[in-house]
Amino acid sequence: MEETGKVIEVSGEFAVVELTAKDMCASCGAKRYCHPEGSKRHITALKEIDVKPGDMVRLDIQPGVPVLISFVLFLAPIVAFFLGYSIVYLIAHIQKYAIIAGFGALVVYLSFLRKLDEKLSQSSRFKPVIREKL
């Protein structure tokens, strides 16, 4: 997946790039998560080339990353809730306890997600890469 944007800030091997929402973003249901402040967002990208603030650049995002992120953020919490609910309901057969367990599993998953975010934010594997100046 490719994005284009303007370099706002450069720091070491990373640069902050301002991206503008594409036309196809207008019909996307998740646009408020990608662009919460309107049509622009800032993203930290790994520099493969020398850039400076004001440069227009092309970013490459690995193909599976957006799908993986969507799964981790949207589908996995639902799975965690229903897994916690189902396990307790199968054991205790009391819906009130099963609902509490579902929410408990959701809280555990969200705390796991926070730790995962801290770890992955340090990794360059999931960061977009600046490939060229435009």
Features:
2 domains, 134 residues, 5-stranded mixed beta barrel, elongated, 43% helix, OB fold (Dihydrolipoamide Acetyltransferase, E2P), 3 helices, alpha+beta
Structure description:
- The chain is of the alpha+beta class.
- It has two domains: 2-61 and 126-133, Beta Barrel (OB fold (Dihydrolipoamide Acetyltransferase, E2P)); 65-120, no CATH class.
- The protein contains three helices and five strands.
- The protein has a five-stranded mixed barrel with strand order 1-2-3-5-4.
- The longest helix has 28 residues, at 65-92.
- It is elongated.
- It starts with a strand and ends with a strand.
Low-confidence stretches: none
Give Rg in angstroms: 19 Å
Distance between the termini: 16 Å
Question: Which class of secondary structure composition applies to the elements?
Answer: alpha+beta
The outline comes out as elongated
Q: How much β-strand is present in the residues?
A: 25-35%
Helical coverage, percent range: 40-55%
Mean pLDDT: 85
CATH class of the largest domain: Mainly Beta
Count of DSSP strands? 5
Report the biggest beta sheet as strand number plus sense, adding barrel if it closes. 5 strands, mixed, barrel
Order of helices and strands: EEHEEHHE
Q: What is the CATH T-level topology of the largest domain?
A: OB fold (Dihydrolipoamide Acetyltransferase, E2P)
Q: How many individual domains?
A: 2
User: How are the strands of the biggest sheet laid out side by side?
Assistant: 1-2-3-5-4
Number of separate helices:
3
Give a summary of the structure in a few sentences.
By secondary structure, the protein is of the alpha+beta class. About 45% of the residues lie in helices and about 25% in strands. The chain is elongated.
